[in-house]
Write a structure and sequence with these properties.
By secondary structure, the protein is an all-alpha fold. The chain has 15 helices and no strands. It is found in: Membrane.
C-alpha cells in the first residue's frame, strides 16, 4: 500500500457528552408511533413535529466517541427527521395506509394494537406488503420454510461480513486513510487506486446495511413476527447499474424513497407542475437528491460543526450527472443509429464507473481528512488474521 511521508495528528475532538441510543433513536420512534395511533389533528402534529425535530438536532451535539459511528448515527437522526416529516406532514397513516394482512379498519382497533400497527409503518420505509410500497424494491423471496430462510440469511451475513472485512482491511492498510497528509485526496494515488478506494469506502455502508437488515430478518422470521417473503434484499442487482439513474434508482437501497418522493411531489404541487411532465420529473429528481444531501449533512454535523455541508456536493451532483446522462441518451436516440443493447449497456457500465470515480472524492476526501478512515468498524478481522498468519503483515 502506498505510504504517506507526512504524518498528521488525529483531529482534535472537543469534549462532548456520550450519545445514548435509547432516548435519541428508540424512544422518539416509539413516541412517533403512539402519536400517529391517536390520529391527531394538524395543530398537534405540528407541535409534536417541532419537538421531534428538536430531539433529532440536539442529538447531533453528542458523540459516540468514534467519528465513523458519529457520521452513521447522525445520518440515522437525519433519516428519523425526514421520516417524521413525511408521516406527520405529508401522510395520514390511519386513513391512507393498509397492509395486505389487514382484516379490519385500524381505527376500530384498540389503542395499543393501533400503536403497534403505526410502529410497523414507522419502520417500514420501503412499504413491503403495504399499499405504499415504493418503486424498484427487489423481488420478494419465494415462499420457503422458516429455517431454510434463516440459514440463507445467516450465510448472507457471513458473506457481507467478509466483504466488509476485505474493504476495511484495504482501508486500514492504506496510510492515505489511517495517516493522511494535509488535504488528503484519494485522487493522489492514481486512477486505479482511486477506483479501489472509492469502492472500498462505499462497500462499508453497502455491506453494513445488508448485514443489519439480514439480522433483523432472521430475528423477525425466527420469532414468528413476519414471513420470509416480507424480506426482499436490501439492494438490487448490479445488472441494472448501467446508468447513474439506475444505479441510484434500481441498485442502491430504497430506504429513503418514501419521504424523498412525498417531499418532491409536494414541491411540484406548490409550483403547479403537472404529474408526468418534464418539469415535474426533474423537480422531483433534484428535490430527492437535495433531501438525501441534507440527511447526510446530519452526519457531517455530528462529526463536527466545521464539516456542515461536506457531504452536500456529492449527493446533489448525482442529479446533475443523471441530467447529463438523460441528455446524452436523448441525443443518441435522435441520431437514428441502431440500438445495440449489449454494446449500449457495456458503454453504460463504463460511464457509471467513470462518473462514480469522478464524483466520489467529493464524498470521501473530507471524511479522510476528518479522521473517519481511522475507525475500526469490525470487532474482528478474519482477513487481516489470515494475512498475518501468511506473514503478509
Amino acid at each position: 500500500m502506498p505510504n504517506s511521508t507526512t504524518a498528521v495528528p488525529a483531529p482534535v475532538v472537543p469534549f462532548r457528552s456520550s450519545f445514548p441510543v435509547v432516548p435519541y433513536l428508540i424512544l422518539p420512534d416509539l413516541l412517533l408511533a403512539i402519536v400517529l395511533a391517536f390520529g391527531p389533528n394538524l395543530r398537534f402534529r405540528l407541535l409534536f413535529y417541532a419537538l421531534f425535530s428538536y430531539a433529532c438536532i440536539s442529538g447531533l451535539l453528542l458523540t459516540t466517541g468514534d467519528r465513523m459511528q458519529d457520521y452513521s448515527m447522525g445520518s440515522m437522526l437525519g433519516g428519523q427527521f425526514f421520516t417524521a416529516t413525511h408521516l406527520l406532514l405529508f401522510a395520514e397513516p390511519l386513513v391512507q395506509y393498509r397492509h395486505r394482512e389487514d382484516k379490519d379498519e385500524p381505527q376500530k382497533r384498540s389503542f395499543w394494537r393501533r400503536a403497534l400497527w403505526t410502529w410497523c409503518i414507522v419502520h417500514s420505509p420501503r412499504g413491503i406488503g403495504w399499499n405504499y410500497q415504493v418503486l424498484s424494491v427487489p423481488p420478494r423471496p419465494l415462499p420457503c420454510s422458516k429455517w431454510a430462510f434463516i440459514r440463507s440469511r445467516i450465510l448472507q451475513i457471513v458473506k457481507f461480513y467478509i466483504l466488509m472485512d476485505m474493504a476495511q482491511s484495504y482501508i486500514r492498510l492504506n496510510t492515505l486513510f489511517t495517516n493522511p497528509p494535509p488535504n488528503a485526496t484519494i485522487t493522489s494515488q492514481g486512477w486505479l487506486l482511486q477506483m479501489i478506494s472509492g469502492a472500498a469506502w462505499m462497500t462499508t455502508p453497502y455491506a453494513g446495511m445488508s448485514m443489519q437488515y439480514c439480522l433483523f430478518a432472521v430475528a423477525s422470521v425466527g420469532l414468528g413476527f413476519s414471513n420470509p417473503e416480507d424480506w426482499p434484499d436490501t439492494y438490487g442487482t448490479w445488472k441494472y447499474a448501467y446508468t447513474v439513474r439506475n444505479f441510484w434508482g434500481k441498485f442502491w437501497h430504497q430506504m429513503i424513497r418514501r419521504y424523498v418522493t412525498s417531499i418532491g411531489k409536494f414541491v411540484c404541487r406548490k409550483l403547479g407542475f403537472q404529474p408526468g411532465t418534464w418539469y415535474s420529473s426533474y423537480t422531483q429528481l433534484y428535490v430527492a437528491f437535495f433531501v438525501s444531501a441534507v440527511l447526510h449533512c446530519f452526519g457531517d454535523v455530528m462529526v463536527g460543526w466545521e464539516y456542515l455541508g461536506a457531504s452536500f456536493p456529492f449527493f446533489v451532483s448525482q442529479a446533475f450527472g443523471i441530467t447529463f446522462e438523460d441528455i446524452a441518451i436523448h441525443l443518441f436516440k435522435r441520431t437514428g443509429l441502431r440500438n445495440r443493447s449489449r454494446v449500449n449497456k457495456a458503454i453504460g457500465y463504463v460511464w457509471v464507473v467513470f462518473w462514480m470515480s469522478f464524483s466520489l472524492p467529493w464524498y470521501i476526501d473530507w471524511a479522510v481528512n476528518a479522521g473517519l478512515g481511522r475507525s475500526e468498524v469490525l470487532p474482528f478481522s478474519p482477513v487481516r488474521y489470515v494475512l498475518r498468519a501468511l506473514s503478509f503483515l
